[in-house]
Amino acid sequence: MATLGAGSSLYTEKSGALVASGNGATVYFNGSPTQRNLIVSGGTFGASAQSVGANVNLAWTDIDVTSNRDVTAGLWAMDGGTIAGDNLAIVGNPATLGAYATTGSQITLTGQTRIHMASPLEMALGTQHNAGFDASSITLSGQADIIGSVRAAGGIITLAMSPGSQLTGAAFSDGANGGALQMTINQSRWNMVADSTVDTLTLNQSTVDFSGEAVGARLKVGNLAGSGTFALKTDIAALKSDRLVVTGSSAGDHYLRVRNQGDMRTSGQEVLTLVETADGQAHFALAPESARVELGGYLYDLRQAGGDWQLYAAGAAEDPVGADPEPTPNPTPNPTPTPTPTPTPTPIPTPNPTPTPETEPEAEREPVLPEAEPTPAPEAKPLPPSLPANPPARPDISSAANAGANFLNISYLMDYVEMQSLLQRFGDLREKGPLGDGWIRGLGGRIDDFGSGKLSGFSLRYSGMQFGVDKAVGPTVLGAFMGVTHGNAHYGSDQGSGDQRSSHAGFYLSALADNGLWLDGVAKYARRKNGFNVRDSQGQAVSGDGAANSYSLSLESGKRVALTQTEPGIYLEPQLQAVWSHQQGNRLRASNGLRVDLDGYDSLLGRASALLGYSLRQEALQLNLYLKSGVVREFKGKTGYRLNGAPERHSFRGNGWNNGLGVSAQVADRHVLYLEGDSTSGSQFDQRQFSAGYRFTF
Predict the structure, then answer these.
(1) How far apart are CA 673 and CA 345, in angstroms?
(2) Which of 468, 469, 474, 467 is nearest to 434 (CA)?
(3) Which of residues 190, 212, 234 is at a domain's end?
(4) I want to staple 614 with a disulfide (CB 3.0 to 4.6 A). Which of 94, 225, 443, 625 is the partner?
(5) At which of 182, 212, 242 does a domain end?
(6) To the nearest 10°, the Cα dihedral for 209, 213, 218, 222?
(7) Contacts for 574 with CB less than 8 Å, ≥ 6 apart
(8) Three-state DSSP class for 82?
(9) Residue at 384 is within a domain
(10) What residues pair up with 116 in beta bridges, in sequence order?
(11) Count of CB atoms situated within 10 Å of the CB of 548
């Protein structure tokens, strides 16, 4: 028996550093929390127990294997030897194994264990299957910080990771020789960098992150229990994803975390299997921070289908829980099949059954490894993608898609607001004399409840200013105007908001006949800019912007009919209006990669209304009170948009009922003040607006 106390150091250049060989041979190499021991080995191992009854005990020790040989190990137990380590740290060069047990040996690690290999695919913990020997075992309990993989080949590896642990690497068990890989992860994290196979996986508020770069990794678990989160990668457009496969019993409540990807070319028709279980007993849900997943421009939910759990387009009808997919018919057998020979597995080298105990550094023995890579990727059987029997007709769209596509609504509504405000202005022109004037008008209001389709739940608060000048030329008034309208849109369910600006200008004319018949015409150009800032389903900020032009022509006619012959007088004024508009197409690109292409469209809006007024003239004051009511109808307005190329349709067609109350007052023949309140209720939108203006005659 040999004992080395705290503060001890061992250095070797070409041989193993610390070895126990022979029945009863025992070595204690114990540091302390304040004085850690150190082993630096240039040979094939840092510490090794090499026979039955040989024991190596280490505590508070750092092991650095610096050798560049093909096979080296920080800890190596063989031929029934036993190694016990408490609060160890192991680092090594490429091809170094962290802790390795062969030929019926045991390694036990406790406390805080730190094993950092050169890469996550190097072997941090491993056993070797040797015919004629009992299964070797490695047991790790406590807090672990491991970079490297775990391989149970013909052996038993038990990991009990306490809170704050992290494993970055793959895991594999071949189940040979009664071996198994059992993992219990408590409030910790496993970054799974490659396909893995585990016999028993128990999670407690822990995360398994499929962190490899390629989509399509598989985690095959014999028995699953506890509660944890699996972070998966998807390429739903290609019907590919990482996948959890449970072949035995499944239990517990687990979450699936799927990252939003706005740049994917999805159609809202896809269904993708993320989890397969044999018994369907475990329950899975999307992670709490993501009630839905945004892929491309569409939202996806999670549902159970038999023993599987699938992503499917939100808004589609769910399959009944427990409804297994329709079986695939068996293929017609080949009547004369050609037999496929069974592949011959690569033989595992057999170690020397009677190794010579190492007594001198020059006599060190090297561990025997199988020819396979330390962390092979188990070949997953390809699974056919699951497709819905009836693809959803109206999948829900994402918050960024909703905000971007709502530029269609914003442009339409701003054009409606600006044109109707101009036409209200012309009614005042008919109250004045032949002189020219200048005018200014302010307006503000709110529009909400737009339609009932995918772009519903939208509201817009707006305000604006218009001003212009005109001149009477005979019975006709010619004028020019310009203005700006600001909007603030809200996209429903606290998804976010957007800011809009419409700059417009144009010309107008108004003609009045002696019999009271009048005709108004407007030509308007507008340039509209739209920007939005929303939160996606995982709380991440998404922004985007775009701009487009629009052109409008309006023609309105009516006739004032006096209902009384004396002042004050009551009158009735029926009106008809037609407005044609063309909105150019536009492309918006959101910060999450989503591309929203808006189609151009034509609008033809008709209005039939009547105005009932009361006119009063007293010396220098002319007062006009009126109540108006009418029907508004959109006759065209069919358009569409594309989300990363996936087409969607939208329409403005519908009816509305418009009502208003207004007053205008002309003072001293040169000053006119006017106020009006309006409301519109319809199948497409509801509007409330207030406007006020001033005109000066010169």
Answers:
(1) 96
(2) 474
(3) 212
(4) 625
(5) 212
(6) -40
(7) 558, 559, 561, 608, 609, 610, 611
(8) strand
(9) no
(10) 91, 147
(11) 20
Enclosing domain of residue 407: 399-697
What string of DSSP letters covers 390-457? S--SSPPBPHHHHHHHTHHHHHHHHHHHHHHHHHHHHHHHTTS-SS-EEEEEEEEEEEE---SSTT-S
pLDDT in tens, 199-257: 999 999 999 999 999 999 999 999 999 999 999 999 999 999 999 999 999 999 999 99
Q: Which residues contact 422 (CB under 8 A, 6 or more apart)?
A: 466, 481, 508, 522, 524, 554
pLDDT in tens, 277-316: 999 999 999 998 888 999 999 999 999 999 999 999 987 5
Q: Are 183 and 201 in contact (CB under 8 A)?
A: yes
- DSSP secondary structure of 482-513: EEEEEEEEE-STT-EEEEEEEEEEEEEEEEE-
What is the rounded distance in angstroms from the CA atom of residue 457 to the CA atom of residue 664? 36
Q: Report the Cα–Cα distance between both ends of the chain, in Å, rounded.
A: 116
Of 617, 610, 611, the C-alpha closest to 569 is 617
Confirm whether 114 is domain-assigned.
yes
The count of structural domains within the chain is 2
Q: Which tokens sit at 585?
A: 């197409």
Q: Which two tokens stand for residue 443?
A: 């307006």
Joined together, the tokens standing for residue 341 give 């020979």
- Distance, in Å, from the CA atom of 409 to the CA atom of 456, rounded to the nearest integer, reads 10
Of 503, 575, 495, 483, the closest CA to residue 535 belongs to 495
Asked if residue 320 has a cis previous peptide bond (ω within 30° of 0), the answer is: no
- Span 446-505, pLDDT tens digits: 998 766 668 877 889 999 999 999 888 888 889 999 999 999 999 876 678 999 999 999
Residue 38: both structure tokens together:
């150190």
What Rg value do the Cα atoms of the chain yield, rounded? 39
Q: How many alpha carbons fall within 13 Å on the CB side of residue 543?
A: 3
Beta bridge pairs of residue 495: none
Which distant-in-sequence residues (6+ apart) come within 8 Å of 501 by Cβ?
484, 485, 486, 487, 528, 529
How far apart, in whole angstroms, are the C-alpha atoms of residue 423 and residue 31? 91
313, 395 Cβ separation under 8 angstroms: yes
CA-wise closest residue to 610 among 661, 577, 574, 556: 574
Indicate whether 344 belongs to any domain: no
How far is it, in rounded angstroms, from Cα 630 to Cα 659? 7
629 DSSP assignment? E
CATH, residue 420: 2.40.128.130
Tokens of 425: 């202005």
Helix, strand, coil in percent for the chain, rounding step 5 = 5, 55, 40
- Among 412, 395, 378, 575, residue whose Cα is nearest residue 489: 412
Q: Measured between alpha carbons, how far is 85 from 113 in angstroms, rounded to an integer?
A: 9
